[in-house]
Write a structure and sequence with these properties.
Radius of gyration: 32 Å
Helix content: under 10%
Structural class: mainly beta
Shape: elongated
Strand content: 25-35%
Largest sheet: 6 strands, antiparallel, barrel
Strand order of the largest sheet: 21-24-23-22-25-26
Number of helices: 5
Length: 499
């Protein structure tokens, strides 16, 4: 059975995802950072120089990623945009042209069998986006960079172009990357669009025709199709051949009237179908030529420019999240990270209530009543008597606070012999494997003010993460080479989600 997932399905899913940020029962999304300890072949697989590919498995997306999660920041509707593949303008480049019937049997100039994989639009240095309605029979663009924001198609560089929209400076700063760019619909362009209007043609020149100018009605299903009140093509024959499509009457074959509401259309050549006047009142023969054809290109639903997101293939959603230093002490700046993910509807630790805070710390914390030495990031820690095992994320010597995680790998967070998990608890001594530092946990219940005036509440010396581990859904996961953080550092993290 032959079947496809259509572009409309992908666009629908991207739209539903975008709307889920603002609808009445909105989902809550968080960007999270994780994995401060190195990738190893004995545990997670891979290495820091060659990170492992995340598996779409229960263990990776339900459990393991929670073990190494460092912190999360809420993503708001202002942090997302629909996006498309970035295609830069470059003079001398051959671009595809928009066609309504691209397939494996009718590929684009670049060989794409799907218009959305084609190069039929580009971005200029001034962040204007143009759609190519005609590429001069597959020739390279030759001319200056376009600047027009006219709502009507225009000719430049041998091409016929359609201005679609401009990327604002704020959106460019937040969302424009080397590979992707935000896409939106310009309200002025959209208002000027005509549903089913014919704005470009594909010409087969043929030979042996009588030179002259001829008019032909476009038949099909458009308004007043096949009459002088519908779409009309002005055909120019020169040297016995039908001239290529363009916008210059007299030298190009042009569209005299684009009509409206065409979902298909045909132009019939011959004495019964061509005329010497645009009113189609005087029949005219193009002669006994052969091999020529005029194919009308059907505009996307609503007309060119009516919906740039769907017209240009906006089935990508981009999130852009800025992490400013420690983000109120919820993100460690004393260690690196190797994993980025997207989390939906996590709950507050120990409850079924969805988290609402702008940021959340996801490490465990223990405060020492007495400490000897200095713990180092990523070293293994163990606790006497309990047998608990963990890894250091950060040590705050000013406040005697040790931040740690317990990944479910032997000697990382579980017993290396039995594989059992034991939580750190009580006042038994915690020892660093490489630093030999020791910490005797406090038994006091208190609230400690942190470096950036956030607080951590300790119950008999310990604090749990702020989100309930394994809650919500991890819907995106990416492993990266280590990225170091610092107290004066800001990261802009962009995720591209393709539907």
């Amino acid at each position: 059975m032959a079947a496809i997932i259509t572009e409309k399905f992908r666009l629908h899913n991207a739209t539903q995802f975008t709307e889920s940020f603002t609808e009445a029962s909105a989902s809550v999304y968080y960007l999270f950072l994780g994995k401060s300890s190195p990738f190893t072949t004995a545990t997670s697989g891979g290495s820091d120089s060659s990170p492992p590919s995340p598996a779409d498995s229960v263990e990776d997306t339900e459990y393991y990623s929670w073990d190494s999660m460092l912190g999360a920041k809420k993503i708001t509707s202002s942090d997302i945009t629909r996006a498309i593949v970035r295609r830069n303008f470059s003079n001398g480049t051959t671009y595809d042209m928009y066609e309504h019937n691209v397939s494996s049997d009718n590929t684009t100039t670049s060989g794409a069998s799907n218009i959305y994989d084609g190069t039929f639009y580009f971005l200029t240095s001034a962040n204007r986006v143009y759609k190519v309605l005609d590429n001069n029979d597959g020739s390279a663009y030759s001319g200056s960079e376009p600047t027009s924001e006219s709502t009507a198609p225009f000719a430049l560089g041998g091409y016929v172009l359609k201005y679609m929209y401009s990327i604002s400076s704020s959106d460019a700063a937040k969302f424009l990357t080397t590979d992707f760019m935000p896409v939106s619909t310009d309200s002025t362009v959209s208002a000027a669009a005509t549903d089913g209007k014919i704005e470009s043609l594909v010409i087969t020149a043929g030979s042996g025709y009588t030179d002259g100018t001829y008019y032909a009605a476009v038949y099909g299903d458009g308004t007043s199709q096949g009459t002088s009140s519908g779409a009309i093509v002005r055909i120019t024959v020169s040297g016995g051949a039908i001239a290529t499509f363009g916008l210059t009457a007299g030298s190009d074959t042009t569209i005299h009237d684009g009509g409206a509401l065409y979902t298909y259309g045909t132009v019939n050549l011959g004495s019964s179908y061509t005329f010497s006047d645009s009113g189609l009142s005087s029949s005219s023969s193009m002669g006994s030529g052969s091999g020529g054809a005029v194919q009308v290109i059907i505009s996307p639903k609503g007309g060119h420019g009516a919906d740039a997101v769907s017209e240009l293939g906006g089935h990508f959603v981009m999130t852009s999240t800025t992490l400013t230093q420690a983000e109120g002490d919820d993100f460690s700046t004393a260690n690196d990270f190797r994993q980025v993910g997207l989390l939906v509807d996590p709950t507050t630790y120990g409850t079924s209530t969805v988290v609402s805070a702008s940021t959340a710390r996801q490490t465990f914390v223990v405060k020492g009543s007495s400490i000897s030495g200095t713990f180092t990031a990523d070293e293994k820690i163990t606790q006497a008597s309990t047998g608990a095992v963990g890894k250091v994320v950060e040590y705050d010597s000013d406040r005697s606070l040790l931040y740690y995680q317990q990944e479910r790998f032997g000697d990382f967070g579980t017993d290396s012999t039995t594989g059992s998990y034991v939580a750190f608890s009580g006042t038994n001594t915690i020892t660093g494997a490489s630093s030999s530092a020791t910490l005797t946990p406090s038994s006091t219940t208190e609230t400690v003010t942190l470096a950036n005036n956030n607080t951590v509440s300790l119950t008999t010396g310990y604090a749990n993460p702020e989100m309930q581990p394994d809650s919500g859904d991890i819907i995106y996961l990416e492993n990266r080479k280590p990225i170091s953080r610092a107290s004066d550092q800001t990261e802009d993290i962009k995720l591209i989600i393709e539907f």
